[in-house]
Specification:
It contains 7 helices and 2 strands; from the N terminus they run H-H-H-H-E-E-H-H-H. It is 55% helix and 9% strand.
Length: 187
């Protein structure tokens, strides 16, 4: 298969043109590798619909085939994300505001739902859990400095995630955690 044309940013723009593809790409990024069947189950979507969008993501180079396994006379394909399912600040700025709003709605809804469930349950019982809320008054330079810091933090988080996957391999299930960072202009 030839490499898809365009930068990873262009491929990501095309990949998220459909909201289900964005959800699928995020699911592949979260799991490390999975089959369309596993993704369909996790997202509660029909396998045929997910398989179609997985083929589109693969054609765009947003995901890549990792391995196949025989299953009941067929081959089950396993993929992993080849691009990160989010944008750096420069790429985000190039998206039209309406597209940014659509892209941000699903992860924000998930974050709010998961935080609420964790607060009602034992999600914040771990001694290393963290919650903070800070109101800031910033000028443009301060806003830019915080944006840069958050970008560096996200890069480091992704490196830690990759290091953890390498250490765990086929070990027992890891500690499942969630990290949500929001920084926005108040109204």
């Amino acid at each position: 298969m030839t490499a898809p044309a365009g930068s990873s940013e262009e491929r990501l723009f095309k990949a998220i043109a459909h909201p289900l593809r964005h959800r699928i790409l995020v699911a592949f990024d979260e799991t490390g590798e999975a089959s369309p069947n596993a993704i369909a189950g996790a997202l509660g979507e029909p396998l045929g619909r997910v398989s179609h969008h997985v083929r589109v993501l693969a054609r765009l180079g947003a995901i890549e085939l990792v391995r196949t396994e025989p299953r009941r006379g067929a081959l089950e394909h396993f993929y992993r994300a080849a691009v990160q399912p989010w944008f750096d600040d420069e790429a985000w700025a190039r998206l039209p505001p309406a597209t940014r709003r659509v892209v941000i709605a699903q992860p924000l809804q998930r974050l709010m739902t998961d935080v609420s469930a964790a607060a009602k349950g034992s999600g914040f019982d771990h001694l290393q859990a963290h919650v903070s809320y800070t109101l800031l008054e910033l000028d443009a330079e301060g806003m830019n400095a915080i944006a840069a810091l958050l970008g560096e933090t996200l890069d480091r988080v992704q490196a830690i995630k990759a290091e953890t996957r390498a250490r765990l391999g086929e070990a027992p299930a890891p500690l499942s955690t969630e990290l949500g960072i929001v920084h926005f202009e108040g109204t």
